[in-house]
Amino acid sequence: MSNAGKMPKEEGIDHSVSLIREGYLYILNKRRSFNSDIFETRLLGKKAICMGGKEAAELFYDVEKFKRKDAAPNRVVQTLFGKNGVQALDGQEHQHRKEMFMSIMSHEELTRLTDITKKQWALATTKWEKADQVILYEEAKEILFRTACEWAGVPVQASETKNLTNYFSAMFESAGAIGPTHWMGRNARNHAEKWMQELIEHVRQETITPPENTALYRFSGHRELDGNLLETEVAAVEVINIIRPIVAIAVFINFITLALHHYPEERKKLQAGDEKYAEMFIQEVRRFYPFFPFVTALVKKDFTWNGYQFEKGTLTLLKHWKN
Ligand code: HEM
Fold first, then answer.
1. Is 41 left (phi over 0), alpha (psi -120 to 50) or beta?
2. CATH architecture, domain 1-65+292-323
């Protein structure tokens, strides 16, 4: 990006509604109309910077220049992320919490997750053979919820599965919404957090004993840098941070199905069983049907980049997908 001096600016009082309405396309549309990878706007009553592209992404992840604490809009915290989870941490605290997440991402554990996933899909497809119709998105969410819970060591009664799946999916389905859908998302998060907090208390009192390699066991026993156990509320947010994104993959399963419908020639190529091709196909689905429009951070201290001024405290959005 060349040194362009003054940052292009979207005029007007506030553009939060355009951002919610246009979603993924907001930053892309404006980048095109300004013919710039960076522009200034106003969101939630304050100056904000939107940017995209490789150089901007490198800048955005510079921990000396940006912080994530308090950057996510409250409505996203109340539905998608939960309070005081890994997404809002910086520096050493982030590193330490991230290590807790990475401790369950070993090759062995990921193989176990793959095996559980295969088993849960096989169980479901056997059931579908007798069904008149299958609503793939709804089924996929439930399969993935069962998979995620089994992997995370979280016990679920059969009678609770449907309700809990709905709570977990409402968190990501409502994240960008306003009005009743947003409130449904908040309500769902409250229910899911309460359920998870009780499980964590049980693990701590040893009234339930999940396997030691699981998220429920590890996060319940995780200690902060000060040596204290995670607060129960935070441990619950973090176990949910494992289960919720796995359930959200149902969205991609639908995108994959849509892609196979629109591009039927791909089916044969995938049926040939070449794993490398399958990986390429999946990455293309992720690129073509993006899921997460942008990530947010706050400018940590004043700095200049490519001739543009970034002032401390400015909300900055990075477009998170290729176009
Ligand atoms: C294809 C599916 C997925 C997509 C598109 C996706 C997307 C993202 C994005 C955009 C971020 C934010 C990165 C940032 O702050 O810069 C993120 C963070 C995160 N994701 Fe995912 N994710 C996916 C699957 C998953 C799964 C399956 C899990 C859990 C098993 C997961 C757990 C997390 C966690 C814990 C974080 C926070 C990491 C941190 O703050 O360091 N994600 N994800």
1. beta
2. 2-Layer Sandwich (3.30)
Task: Give the pLDDT confidence of 277-292 residue by residue, as tens digits.
Answer: 999 999 999 888 877 7
Ligand 1 neighbour 87 (Cβ under 6 A): yes
- Say if CB 69 and CB 88 are below 8 A apart: yes
Strand 66-67 relative to strand 294-299, pairing? antiparallel
Residues 6+ apart with CB under 8 A from 320: 290, 292, 293, 294, 295
Q: How far is the CA of 292 from the centre of ligand 1 (A)?
A: 10
Using a 6 Å cutoff on CB, does residue 98 contact ligand 1?
yes
Q: What is the pLDDT of residues 302-311, one digit of tens each?
A: 999 999 999 9
What kind and span of H or E run contains 39?
strand 38-43
Please tell me the pTM assigned to this model: 0.90
Q: Does domain 73-245 have CATH number 1.10.630.10?
A: yes
